[in-house]
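Continued from yesterday's entry.
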Amino acid sequence: MEESSNYGHQHPLLLILNQDQLIHNQSGVTHCSRCGEEVSAPCFCCVEHCGFYLHKACAEAPLELNHPFHPHRPLLLMQNVPYISGEYICTFCGKDGNDFVYHCSCELDFHIKCALFTFNIAENNLKELDHFSLQHPLISTENGDEELEDVSKCFGCWEPLAKYTHFSPDCRFNLHEKCAKLPFKLNHKCHHKHPLTLQFNSERLSCKICGKNNELPIGFVYGCSSCKFVAHIECVSESLDPVVEDKRHEHPFTLLLKGSSFICDACGIEGSYASYICCTCNIMVHKKCTSLPRIIKSKWHDHRLFHKYFLRVEDFRVLDCIICHDEVNIEHGSYYCSKCDVIFHVKCAMKDKDLYEIVENEDEESPNEFVSSITKVLEWNDAGEATVIEHSMHIHHLTLGDRVGEYVNKCCDGCRLPISASFYYCTQCDLFLHKICVELPKVKHVWHHLCRPPLVLTSNEVFHCEQCLCFSNAFAYKCEECVQRTCLRCIIALTPGVLNYKQNTDETLKNDIFHTMNMQ
């Protein structure tokens, strides 16, 4: 043990060089006063045994770090996190922190260990990884197939850790062997002007090859700062196939390397340099869009959604995406419902894999397809409206009402809101239902409930709504997996497009629902 300077501490510090000395000096588990992690040798400890410990690397971390992966500004070591929340997200590992932070004004933040580790990667100084074992990328299952062993992601490329040979997690960094040994500079055929250098994506630019952009600027990218060119490590590494064939498109796609940007005809998002064209259909797409699903079933909508490269404007009353509400450019690809005039951006429909499933066979009946709660229509009027119906939630026939003003003191038994719009009523008992409540499906996928199975329409049960937290005995949608229920007011208010696109929905009911939701 050696006595050292106190690194800002009020007492002298001792340098502990091996783990046996550390165990002898500490009582219980102790943590580094800078990085917050459990202390291991070599480290410094207080000679007065006041509980102050520092990893040697944390103690000797420079106050200003000129990082090769971020050459334009230095990273400054700060004791206090420069955000009101008191927390930050590390640009390398993606985990939060509230201790010392290496910070740049462009909102890059690093744990001390992550800043120093990536600095060593840049300097090709990886001695600390020498004694950690390598693990193979795949494991075999009982049926002989191979699958990824877990869902952890590599901190460098953010691809699944188990996809490639990687270092043992004991090193405390999820890292592929290949990502630890990436060349600092390389030439790539998608950007001939300048070499690409390994860097942090501080400007949060989209990859010019695949068009995707991570929500957080975590991990590494290859980029050219002067040209604002960025490419994911995986996109730079993989080869660009000269011809791509996929069963979802009837013709092959051919690689076209361009020196300028293009708008993908499949998703409507800008791409650069590497595109694939179908000469028969005269379309140009990203490589990832050559296999875009033709049909999906989304939790955002009750019917199947179909992908089309081009749509006719006259087929839609409104061209706003019902998820983000921005206008959809129908001169490029989008998803639409063939039964309703609703439309989705591809990026919105495909954003979360948990919120949609791919329909491979168009003729195949899906168990979760729209099933009406109206079990039988007994009478129709001249306008084509169902005037007398049988409904799955009531034992008697329901009749379409035409005198809303006579029932202003009545409430819908489905949503518990006043009868202020088109409604059905029972002639044998005192039951009233809005037309929009009657037409809701028996089973329904909703984006705001995380369980995979659809929700099932129920009635005649007292329940606690998981969204508005109110108790009710009206209609509800129930999850058979977690048994939670959501009231109809919340279902309707949180379903994009139901109120905007149903032709016969009364504005008064729309206002009643949103006013009630805001009051709660």
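--- second protein ---
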Amino acid sequence: MEAGEVGGALLFALAAAAAVAAAVSVGAVDFTRPLTAGPLVDLHGAVTWLIGVLDGTSSAAADVYGAWVAVRAGVIAPVLQVAVWACMVMSVMLAAEAVYNNAISLGVKAIGWRPEWRFKWKPLDGADEEKGSAHYPVVLVQIPMYNEIEVYKLSIAAACELQWPRDRITVQVLDDSTDPFIKNLVELECESWANKGVNIKYATRTSRKGFKAGALKKGMEYDYARQSEFIAIFDADFQPEPDFLLRTIPFLVHNPEVALVQARWSFMNETTSLLTRVQKMFFDYHFKVEQEAGSATFAFFSFNGTAGVWRTLAIKEAGGWKDRTTVEDMDLAVRATLKGWKFIYVGDVKVKSELPSTYKAYCRQQFRWASGGANLFRKMAKDVLVAKDVSLLKKFYMLYSFFLVRRVVAPTAACILYNIIVPVSVTIPELYLPVWGIAYIPTVLTIVTAIRHPKNLHIMPFWILFESVMTVHRMSAALTGLLELEGFNQWVVTKKVGNDLEDTEVPLLQKTRKRLRDRVNFREIGFSVFLFFCASYNLVFHGTTSYIYLYIQGLAFLLLGLNFTGTFSCCQ
């Protein structure tokens, strides 16, 4: 059994034990309550029971209903109560993590902290090209792509226009495309830039083994790649500004202990639909809070896979690119950190990119990231524990905050508590839900998110509902990766739109007819039916106002189940 499995089992066992103890101490669980069973009823009895439930006059109904109450109170409620307290423990962990990161982020913003305060930065000697280029380090720019017909010209052009002496930079296009027509277009584009004097290389492989990690690893095997001191990586839809290298590489040149400089993502299609607007809030929180807090405190965070510059030596010392998970970027970052390397996040350097334009594409992206992160936790827990070049406090931060809370606790607690337990609780009055857990903690999480997005307060309700739906996918992905279930290492490339942002049809490709299961999402529709049932039950039998939110939550699941993303089209 691996260390990740043992550690996870112990942590969840402790959380479950604490939950049971807390539930028993407050009297929410009573294991001494006797369990009774009522007599079996036939069809006539079932009808009588239903009528009796409604008017309370039938003795047969009273007996059956009494048995149900006994089972509900003595068996179902205690089991769910344990789950409630486990979710309470995880919610406290999540809230503490969010408040901590936001406090760091707000403190950094309040004092105007910049990476230059901690790490040396100054323009490179010989930054004037007229004085020669000998003082410039040799840089390799890698652009991995796979059938990227919509965006290949944009990324190649942006990389070829980077400001750097032409004899000190090589642009390497790693084309894993399987469509011969697209491969030919990409190769012709590379030849076009080569004719303009750009040092650009077009590289292909005979197989897609290892996906992106395999392509990047193969790209480093060329002689010109081995001679490079630094490697900048951009996905096919990323377009860096011309001064990107001039603003990032000085950190690496003047700070030999730094392995990675990560820039922030910006988005060309952030206002295209409600879907892209809520996605932007998610990514803004990730960069403004999580990445900035990690950089300012422990000089550690996850490489985002693109829009960053690596020191070639750090990649080699960390063991190079590995394809054992779907988060090869996070994998490399963790291994480099365990070797003693530090990272810098520069939020004022932004690289334009594209958000997934469809709900299915975003779900696939989030599944890949959530599953890969949880799976990496399973694989790397032991390595983090025994690492000699990392302080004990940093190990705790990596295992507890970076892995456990963000990759496992966050999606699990949110999904189970708000999408399952709270709706079911309307049918089980014996279930005790602490107000501080189901109201105060979510309020805290909403506030700490809104603080960093003051311009987006008007879409916060939509963000809350959208994230409620996404927790289902993220929890499923996290458990798939943690337990290595079927599909845990599945890689699906996110579909791009490129310049054609206002048209959802793929340029140069024929629109194919989709089957019903491809046009609707049955998981979301199933959850919507469940939530509508719970809301209706609450409305009819209890009449409390909680049914209002359950109806709204169910509507959110239904709309996303029909692939409605805030435009005028759905079921596409």
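Residues 391 and 442 are 33 Å apart (CA to CA). The longest helix spans residues 59-111. Will compare against the first tomorrow.
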